[in-house]
UniProtKB/TrEMBL annotation:
<dbReference type="Pfam" id="PF01490">
    <property type="entry name" value="Aa_trans"/>
</dbReference>
<feature type="transmembrane region" description="Helical">
    <location>
        <begin position="438"/>
        <end position="465"/>
    </location>
</feature>
<feature type="transmembrane region" description="Helical">
    <location>
        <begin position="35"/>
        <end position="54"/>
    </location>
</feature>
<feature type="transmembrane region" description="Helical">
    <location>
        <begin position="186"/>
        <end position="210"/>
    </location>
</feature>
<dbReference type="GO" id="GO:0005886">
    <property type="term" value="C:plasma membrane"/>
</dbReference>
<keyword id="KW-0813">Transport</keyword>
<keyword id="KW-0029">Amino-acid transport</keyword>
<keyword id="KW-1133">Transmembrane helix</keyword>
<feature type="transmembrane region" description="Helical">
    <location>
        <begin position="61"/>
        <end position="79"/>
    </location>
</feature>
<comment type="similarity">
    <text>Belongs to the amino acid/polyamine transporter 2 family. Amino acid/auxin permease (AAAP) (TC 2.A.18.2) subfamily.</text>
</comment>
<feature type="transmembrane region" description="Helical">
    <location>
        <begin position="381"/>
        <end position="401"/>
    </location>
</feature>
<keyword id="KW-0769">Symport</keyword>
<keyword id="KW-1003">Cell membrane</keyword>
<dbReference type="GO" id="GO:0006865">
    <property type="term" value="P:amino acid transport"/>
</dbReference>
<keyword id="KW-0472">Membrane</keyword>
<feature type="transmembrane region" description="Helical">
    <location>
        <begin position="123"/>
        <end position="144"/>
    </location>
</feature>
<feature type="transmembrane region" description="Helical">
    <location>
        <begin position="276"/>
        <end position="297"/>
    </location>
</feature>
């Protein structure tokens, strides 16, 4: 091991100063990413199903606090992203050793117990996202069915239906897709995701503008949903939950290092990434402000939890069908992309612990005419199927989109967006304890922790409240 490590170090040191044409300092193919490509990746990753709950979140906080909190999250996300970008290389921002993933950066800068905590938070977050995507896709499939039912009956049929068959259908699709090797590496997947997310987000924004024009006035109030429409207690819990929904809309820290690993140098990757983050967070914030504010202006206190389910189901039903179909297509692929790291972790851990088990390690080659043989792994088949079934079952038991989104935002915001980037930055730059800079960073971290606790409490209270009126497997909408 020592000799191999020495050879690797010599290779690394030689490549830093005299690397072959077409290769980078770590011996990998030369990276070609720019500010523009990194910005596109970030915008694609950030603008997703989280945008659908922003009108509801704005309605809980009102015209003053709503936009202010969106801006606050954008500023914190941008600032902590620049701290995280500085941790891409160890010690030296130009020639230091690269970290290829978020977890590697944590291991290199903090190590020990913190790496395990980071892993648990990451995988818990990914598990939660799978549940959130199952709920969101079922809502969209139901919206398509109901809009066509309303259109066919000209509004005479209330078109009540149960979400369970749609969740089961989504789950079956995910079981099939989860058996495709390297599904998340398919080159066209990001393009499809980007097109779909912009399609439904833009339709939501456009319909919000049209609704405001139709109403002839801007709805809403300075302080948000009024006590009377909801109780005083509900007002407090919903305001906290809104923080979680907004935090979820900005969650992309987990993949920042991977995006940074596509950038060419010089200039240093951290400088390019800081510019890309500023550009992409700026564009995203503008888009979020428009979607959240126009949705609130259109519906006021009655802003729906999912923006696209609030425009009624009769006209223009075909446009809503396109938007909801785009959500389903996006989430089918996004579910797999988010779950792949969790799948890989479990499968590698199992293979390491039971290296002699054929059930875990053996691939059965199944010939497919005209294609390469398919490698069927029984452990992968069983474990991934159980995982999808479990996320589907939990979604059926707790089909509350806003509550789950708020909880996910709370779980991921402080640890992954704030705490680890701040601590890694302090460690890498050897910032003295109790210095002014150290104190400012710790105050930021503690303030964000309090937001996370409030958002989690509000979301859990929302789930408890919804469970009082919801009967699992039987309630119809």
């Amino acid at each position: 091991m020592g000799e191999k490590g020495a050879v690797k170090n010599r290779l690394h040191n030689n490549l830093v100063f005299d690397h072959p044409i077409g290769f980078d300092d770590d011996g990998r193919l030369k990276r070609t990413g720019t500010v523009w490509t990194a910005s596109a990746h970030i915008i694609t990753a950030v603008i997703g199903s989280g945008v659908l709950s922003l009108a509801w979140a704005t309605a809980q906080l009102g015209w003053i606090a709503g936009p202010a909190v969106i801006f606050l999250f954008s500023f914190v996300t941008y600032y902590t992203s620049t701290l995280l970008a500085a941790c891409y290389r160890c010690d030296d921002p130009v020639n230091g050793k690269r970290n290829y993933t978020y977890m590697e950066a944590v291991r290199a800068n903090l190590g020990g117990f913190e790496v395990k905590i980071c892993g648990w938070v990451q995988y818990l977050n990914l598990f939660g996202v799978a549940i959130g995507y199952t709920i969101a896709s079922s809502i969209s499939m139901m919206a398509i069915k109901r809009s066509n039912c309303f259109h066919a009956s000209r509004g005479k049929n209330p078109c009540h239906m149960n979400s369970n068959p749609y969740m089961i259908g989504f789950g079956i699709a995910e079981i099939i897709f989860s058996q495709i090797p390297d599904f998340d590496q398919l080159w066209w997947l990001s393009i499809v995701a980007a097109v779909m997310s912009f399609t439904y987000s833009t339709i939501g924004l456009g319909l919000g503008i049209a609704k405001v024009a139709e109403n002839g006035k801007i709805r809403g109030s300075l302080t948000g949903i009024s006590v009377g429409t909801v109780t005083q207690t509900q007002k407090i819990w919903r305001s906290f939950q809104a923080l979680g929904d907004m935090a979820f809309a900005y969650s992309y820290s987990l993949i920042l290092i991977e995006i940074q690993d596509t950038l060419k140098a010089p200039p240093s990757e951290s400088k390019t990434m800081s510019k890309a983050t500023l550009l992409s967070v700026g564009v995203t914030t503008l888009f979020y402000m428009l979607c959240g504010c126009m949705g609130y202006a259109a519906f006021g206190d009655l802003s729906p939890g999912n923006l696209l389910t609030g425009f009624g189901f009769y006209n223009p039903f075909w446009l809503l069908d396109i938007a909801n179909a785009a959500i389903v297509i996006h989430l089918v692929g996004a579910y797999q992309v988010y779950c792949q790291p969790l799948f890989a972790f479990i499968e590698k851990s199992a293979a390491k612990r039971f290296p002699d088990s054929e059930f875990i390690t053996k691939d059965i080659k199944i010939p497919i005419p005209g294609f390469r043989p398919y490698n069927l792994n029984l452990f992968r088949l069983v474990w991934r199927t159980i995982f999808v079934m479990l996320t589907t079952l939990i979604s059926m038991l707790l089909p509350f989109f806003n509550d789950i989104v708020g909880l996910l935002g709370a779980i991921g915001f402080w640890p992954l967006t704030v705490y680890f980037p701040v601590e890694m930055y302090i460690s890498q730059n050897k910032i003295a304890k109790w210095s002014t800079r150290w104190l400012c960073l710790q105050i930021l971290s503690i303030a964000c922790l309090s937001i996370t606790i409030a958002a989690a409490a509000g979301s859990i209270a929302g789930v408890i409240l919804d469970l009082k009126s919801y009967k699992p497997f039987s309630t119809a909408y």
